[in-house]
Amino acid sequence: MLSNLLINVFIGKNKDVKSEEVRNKFGYLAGFIGIISNFCLFIVKFFVGFVTGSIAITADAFNNLTDALSSIITIAGFKLSSMPADEEHPFGHGRIEYIAALVVAFLIIIVGVEFIKSSFMRIINPTPVKFEIIPFILVILTIFAKLWLARFNKVIGNKIDSDALKATSLDALGDVFTSTCVAISLLLSKFTAIPIDGYVGIGVSLFILYSGLMLIKETINPLLGESADPELVDNIKKELLKYEHVTGVHDLIVHNYGVGKFMASIHAEMPAELGVVLIHDIIDKAEREISEKLNIYLVIHMDPISPLTDEVAKAKKEVEKIIQYNPLIKSMHDFRTVCGNDKKTILFDLVVNPLTLKKITTKEQLITDVKNAIEAEHPDYNCIIEVDNDFSE
Length: 393
What we know:
Blueprint (H helix, E strand, L loop, with lengths): L1 H10 L8 H33 L2 H27 L14 H29 L8 H28 L2 H26 L7 H29 L5 H12 L6 E9 L5 E10 L4 H19 L1 E10 L4 H14 L5 E11 L4 E9 L1 H7 L2 H15 L3 E9 L4
């Protein structure tokens, strides 16, 4: 209810997240709400930690302070990533959002390490924790506040497909867990002299450290170059195959330049007899329309395919029957034949997942295996095979 109210008030009627302006508004809203909420939670928990003498609550308070700093960095990330392209960055600055999330992760790790030290010292040199009902109630209220904040960031993160905000949502859920443990330790301190506070403080700190490490893993993948979104891959292929005379597609590569900023290249198989001008018109139209529809920058390379005579079609069918039993081969394309005096030369490309192939064999060995399998059944065939890597997975 409150989430929808905030969205309606600050975003307005236009909620088209494909618009960069609207997407940035959502990011700023989540950032400002995060700053205000987490700073308030820091003040409340720091006060409770001071009153009760609890290192666990104080650690949890500074965890919320890093969350507030994270929100500031998130806003800066959205602002900088929306800067237009320039001479040095022709595809814009979208990846700054990933770098912002990475900075957040390192801040979280620093806080985790520092409070592991403080909590360990609390175990070695125990200090009594004073239980009071009002501070205890305040800690309980902060748990519900974090639950709402986690939900709010998840809603916006999913709406605009922001890894930074999704990570913030998960971090907030982690805070719910740690704050619950802190509340329990505060309650138990009333009944025992065991330094539970120090042990819980280490638990909270370890969780903070774990959250930071997981966030590094999640944000560094797109910077290094992760696999493309399967849904985007399928949509590109399906959309291109809708165009007249496009008989097949292969060699799709997707480059990520930030959330919502993708460049893709793909090969489209088209009948060679159509003529260069007609093929160019079809390809040009497909590039323009698919780019606009999927919000990407698409480049299409045309592969001219000669008409399959009955003889070539028969040879292709026989080869497909032989290679279908090889689990490493995903598909085959650009099949053609050249007849010689005594042997028929067949040429084609095989598509494989490079990582799967590397675990089992090499490209050279795969080519040898396929050639041997084909030529064993068809001694009159001379195979010339190329292996293409599938980068769309």
